[in-house]
Amino acid sequence: MRRSTDEILVSQAGSLPRTPELIEANEQRAEQAARAEKTGVPLTDDYTELLGREVAALVQREKDAGVTVPGDGEYGKSMSSPVDYGAWWSYSFQRLSGLSLGGVDIWKDAEVHRSSPGNVVLTSFSDRRDRQLFHDAYHDPDSGITTGRKAQVFPKCTGKIEYTGQDAIAADTANFVKALDDAGIEEGFMTSLSPGSASRIANEYYDTEDEFMYACADAMREEYKAIIDAGLILQIDDPSIAENFDQINPEPTIEDYLAFTQKRVDALNYALRDLPQDRIRFHLCWGSWHGPHTTDIEMADLVHTMLGINAGAYLFEAGNVRHEHEWRVWDDVELPDDKIIVPGVVSHATNVVEHPDLVADRIERFARRVGRERVIASTDCGLGGRVHPQIAWAKLETLAEGARRATARLWG
């Protein structure tokens, strides 16, 4: 994994805006898949060719914007709408066996669970503490924070979990490797879902939630290996580490939550066993929705748990105004010598495009604490489906310019 040896490198957190052509093709493909299931008529190859062209154009556009460690934009993770908060997760439903539609709208109909001391369980998505505190705002269609909250019917586990996405991940990696080669870029990353997040659906097959989670670990490990074997950097996406805190009622103690979370860390480390840490980066986030986030866990409470994950780099939100102040954590926490950090210094949570001097300030704060060579500048979270494409690309450009200004300060 590259380090910022001569300049502050620039990356992003994963999802980038899909083009109208790709969104339309995703919608048509979903319709074709439904027909194919009924009639047995196979899908056409038009989509595969289009996806390859779209990924190639995206990587070149990232390069032109100043991104030095690009991703594939998660283009292989289907979005059939310009606004989509869940493609990073829901793509796994097509790559795992043992799942069937549960017919439950997670925002309205999901069963509500309650935690107790020493017994932490997730409540429903619709019963998050953040949504309770700001009930009126979340239910006001003009508030601006209900975007993307359309009905979502997610599956449940009713059989043995196994990985079935070999063809999909082979196509994703081939498209991305070719795009990187065509653009003359030496390193890129591809995202994949963690076991802890993959298992955040109803389980009716495995005897325990831990057994279900480890089944997901064994399955997703195949995807992890495929990404690394293709010569790419693997990025693990796992909101379950931080975002779960808001999804537990009543609020647990920090000790109980960390014990609950450590099980998810252990399952992830099990899935990553024997894989090269210097080819793995981990993305921590508090959730991508545009809401108040007053119920987030503090970074200071979670940082050591994060560092216990077997990765060589850690991405986390640092531009989001709810968490920007947490750069001070690194005054007291020593980053291991073989690790780097990839703080988000422009945010997906606002339409305001950050000034490059502010971006440079944010980068410099981290560089002064952990060393300039161990900081890569990034976005807080994925921009695709969260902000307008024109704004997303402006944010990537200001991110790159901010990195150039930080480089001048740090190497000047």
Automatic annotation (TrEMBL):
<dbReference type="InterPro" id="IPR002629">
    <property type="entry name" value="Met_Synth_C/arc"/>
</dbReference>
<keyword id="KW-0489">Methyltransferase</keyword>
<dbReference type="Pfam" id="PF01717">
    <property type="entry name" value="Meth_synt_2"/>
</dbReference>
<dbReference type="InterPro" id="IPR038071">
    <property type="entry name" value="UROD/MetE-like_sf"/>
</dbReference>
<dbReference type="GO" id="GO:0003871">
    <property type="term" value="F:5-methyltetrahydropteroyltriglutamate-homocysteine S-methyltransferase activity"/>
</dbReference>
<keyword id="KW-0808">Transferase</keyword>
<feature type="domain" description="Cobalamin-independent methionine synthase MetE C-terminal/archaeal">
    <location>
        <begin position="209"/>
        <end position="399"/>
    </location>
</feature>
<protein>
    <submittedName>
        <fullName>5-methyltetrahydropteroyltriglutamate--homocysteine methyltransferase</fullName>
        <ecNumber>2.1.1.14</ecNumber>
    </submittedName>
</protein>
<dbReference type="GO" id="GO:0032259">
    <property type="term" value="P:methylation"/>
</dbReference>
<dbReference type="GO" id="GO:0009086">
    <property type="term" value="P:methionine biosynthetic process"/>
</dbReference>
<dbReference type="GO" id="GO:0008270">
    <property type="term" value="F:zinc ion binding"/>
</dbReference>
